[in-house]
Amino acid sequence: MKRTIILTIILSVILFTACSDKSTGPNKNQIPSIYYNGSYYSIEELINTYNNGNLTGIIMLIKNKRNDMVMNFFDGEWHEMTFDGYETDAYAGMFKQDYSPLDVVSIVINATTLKQYTPGAYKVFDPYSPIDIFFGGNQNKYLIDSVNGFPSVIDSVSFPDEIVITNLNRYDTVSKSNDFEILWTGGGSNSKIEIDFSKNFTLLDSITHDNTGIGFRIILDNSLGYTFPSLFLRNTCELTGKYDLKVTCYTPVYKTLSNGKQILFIGVSSHRITLNLTN
Fold this sequence. Notes:
Distance between the termini: 46 Å
Structural class: mainly beta
Shape: globular
Helix content: 10-25%
């Protein structure tokens, strides 16, 4: 039970927060194989895939590429503003053999110290000093001090190229009357891909009922592309207007410590752009 709780907290809270009115994706039995031949995953299946039963910690290194639109309120009105750039972050969760929290002296990633915010859990706290996170084979150096039988470790971890959407640009138009193709580069053969398509801003929309469809999310293998049938778009996206398309890649790397236990590093790379959805 403790194992399920700590893995679910670390992974689901950070990686998989979703609105209740968003579809979790298509039933694979309802999508013809001409659109996708790979496997779909639930959140629980993805967590179980990562848990090999020998973990003593999970560290996520996150790099988000943004070419999207944000809404800011000033001068008494809402204004559209574009955003181009990167956001980086890092989280860590350490635990004992019985999956109770493990407090370590410090966790340092690329010369940035993660701060403890709850027993066994660590994160970057200074929003004005973003942490360096590297993809494309470049090394991310880390240091964890020894404590309570936990061995001291100085090592590095690398991930494949970051995710980049290649066939769409900000403010491109997507129609619910046509199939919706997404192509990307990056990630590796063992990476999992999350595709999230969500309404950018709803305060100015007319909601027709409480559970109006404003997007969807799916998790699948890294096939470097995916096509949503137009019927699926119509069933999951009632509202038209601006939507954020976010493709996120999760790449696991296991590092074995001197005591035989392992730390799971997850390289999280994403690319988000804003699109126009029409009927």
